[in-house]
């Protein structure tokens, strides 16, 4: 007999790119909706991987607050400096549109307040790959189309291997959104 993880509150999710392309028999990922205790569980799980600070007050938080500073404070935008501070990819994201430059010294000072930031940047790509995988492992209950059924303790490596890499990333970050959504947002 296969015993599922808790199915008290579930949500079905299919990445949008399946519906956009009209793909038939697109996989439906049945996920356990994170509860009030799950943030601590996820933080503990990530701590074992050494990447807890990336999502919890580390790189992600520092970068987001830096973006807010850019949008709010300064009259013009220095794209090259933004790339130097935030990296090529994030710097390029900030160049178009209405964002304006901040006092970059303030941004750098803000980032320095998060001790893991500078050391963790090098590992951020690794974390970007690992974080969704951790979340799918913890919260995926079933994907019938791929023959995935979580047992007690979550999804196995063999089950994860059945899931397309793009889906792992998208579904994982969908769970991340649920994890930090307000209760009224989860209903939507």
Task: Give a description of the structure.
- There is one protein chain.
- The protein is an alpha+beta fold and 188 residues long.
- It is built from 12 helices and 4 strands; from the N terminus they run βαβααααααααββααα.
- It has helices at residues 16-20, 38-47, 52-55, 59-73, 79-86, 88-94, 104-112, 116-120, 124-139, 157-161, 165-179, 183-187, and strands spanning 10-13, 29-32, 140-143, 148-149.
- Strands 1-2-3-4 form a 4-stranded antiparallel sheet.
- Residues 50-63, 65-77, 93-104 and 114-124 have low confidence and may be disordered.
- This is Tail assembly chaperone.
Shape: globular
Strand tally, please? 4
Report the helical percentage. 55-70%
Distance, first to last CA: 34 Å
Regions with little confidence, pLDDT below 50 for 5+ residues: 50-63, 65-77, 93-104, 114-124
Using the CA coordinates, give the radius of gyration.
19 Å
Biggest pleated sheet = 4 strands, antiparallel
| Spatial order of strands in the largest sheet | 1-2-3-4
Whole-number tally of structural domains: 2
Q: Give the count of helical stretches.
A: 12
- The chain-level mean pLDDT equals 67
Strand content: 5-15%
Order of helices and strands: EHEHHHHHHHHEEHHH
Given helix and strand content, the structural type is: alpha+beta
